[in-house]
Amino acid sequence: MTTQEMIQAFSAAYGHEAEMMFFAPGRVNLIGEHTDYNGGCVFPCALSFGTWVLLAKNDDQILHFRSLNMPQTYDISIHSIAPQPDNAWCNYALGCIDVIARRHPEAKLESGYDLLYYGNVPAGAGLSSSAAIEVVTARAFTEIMHYKPADDIAYRTELAIIGQLCEHEYAGVMCGIMDQFASAQGKKDHAIYLNCDTLEFEQVPILLNGIKVVIANTHSPHRLDNGAYNERVRQCQQAVEQISKIRPIKYLADLKPEEWESVEMAIADPVARRRARHVVGEVARTDAAVLALKKGEIAYFGELMTASHVSLRDDYEVTGPELDALAEAAWQIPGVLGSRMTGGGFGGCTVSLVRDEAIERFKSIVGAEYERKTGLKADFYVAEIGDGVTRLM
Ligand code: GLA
Question: Is residue 176 lining ligand 1, measured as CB closer than 6 Å?
Fold first, then answer.
């Protein structure tokens, strides 16, 4: 759908013209999985897929939520903003407006708005469609509510924090900040090397000569399971508490792999111990991968991606048969440098580095092998790495 068509759809829905329009992207994470809420680093990039919102002020003190993707509509008074029942999609937007008002008491919402959303991030694919809704809404309403610091970097970081808090409070997922941060701070043809403890980051060029970032969608019926995600968060916190009795740490990311053996037995539960082992290894792999990329050692970057998947499969246990089938098929193909699940897991997508000449072979062989093993059809997209949130109108 073009932006012109969205503008027409807004007029058709509300009988008057849109006054503003914003876009925020989804993301794909290259490496650094389940490290963000453990104070570690991540390496995601923003995609050209994302969510658009069109808005116009109204006179009725009501926020009217409409979407071109979802049939449900919501009409919420600006005086009674609170989470809506039944996993309402508008929660990803409402939560942001609520968080802005609480974090910035000087920011006031003085009138109602007509809103129309449209997104083209494949649903349930682990490419952060919810973060895109949050960040695009945070961008629009910080402007509407006159909270917009002059420092663009600090402003974008604040948009990510608003989105993350919305996810905690209105969706009940105790996520880290990676998805919202990538959506807010993304840069065309760059990945973001983010320290999730300090929120310091570096944009690293990712234009790879003769190699593409290929996303494969499992279309698996599993969705990111909030219960299993929050359980991983709790297991990591438990590991931190128990390790801290012998070696005080704030996060699992504070541990170096060479220290692991001296602390691991402080974690009583063998499952929590495996979860922690993944995190300690993944943080080190991510740092090593970024260094390898900067040195042009792409083959090593790919090997670290594959090692990341193995650790997520065996120790963190967030892959599942569909993601494993895609990754394992990819590893067999000459010209694939590395392949791994991306995002929270339990379904969703893999991300692979594939040489240009191997892309067609990759799609046909991985697609066929995946269908043979799971009975499902995968979809493949060559990632276009785009910019973070932006105002279009
Ligand atoms: C989801 C969460 C992120 C991050 C990833 C796993 O996408 O929203 O914060 O934890 O899972 O790396």
Answer: yes
Question: So where are the chain's domains?
Answer: 3-205
Q: Tens of pLDDT along 218-265? A: 998 655 567 999 999 999 999 999 999 999 999 999 999 999 999 999
Secondary structure letter of residue 171 according to DSSP:
I
DSSP strands (E only) in the chain = 20-29, 41-42, 44-57, 62-67, 74-77, 113-119, 190-195, 201-205, 211-217, 336-342, 349-355, 379-382, 390-391
pTM for the full predicted model: 0.98
Asked if residue 119 has its Cβ within 6 Å of ligand 1, the reply is no
What separation in Å is there between the alpha carbon of 92 and the centre of ligand 1? 16
Query: Cα torsion at 346, 350, 351, 357 (round to 10°)?
Result: 180
Helices 298-314 + 321-331 axis angle, to 10: 150
**179 is annotated as an active-site residue:** yes
| Catalytic residue of the set 179, 254, 287, 324 | 179
322 lines ligand 1 (CB under 6 A): no
Residue nearest atom 8 of ligand 1, based on CA coordinates: 175
Cα angle vertex 277, ends 198, 200, to 5°? 10
Q: Is the CB of 36 under 6 A from ligand 1?
A: yes
Please indicate whether residue 366, judged by its CB atom, sits closer than 6 Å to ligand 1: no
SS3 at position 40: coil
Can you tell me which atom of ligand 1 is nearest the CA of 175?
A: 9
**DSSP-assigned beta bridge partners for residue 116:** 54, 66
Taking the C-alpha atoms of residue 306 and residue 124, their distance in angstroms, rounded to an integer, is 23
Answer yes or no: are the C-beta atoms of 155 and 149 closer than 8 Å.
yes
Sign of the four-CA dihedral 364, 369, 374, 380: negative
Residue type for position 320: G
CB 238 within 8 A of CB 255: no
Residue 81 pLDDT: 98
Assigned CATH for 3-205: 3.30.230.10
- Dihedral (CA of 386, 388, 389, 393) sign: negative
pLDDT, one tens digit per residue, over 165-183 is 999 999 999 999 999 999 9
Among 74, 101, 68, which Cα is nearest to 89's? 74
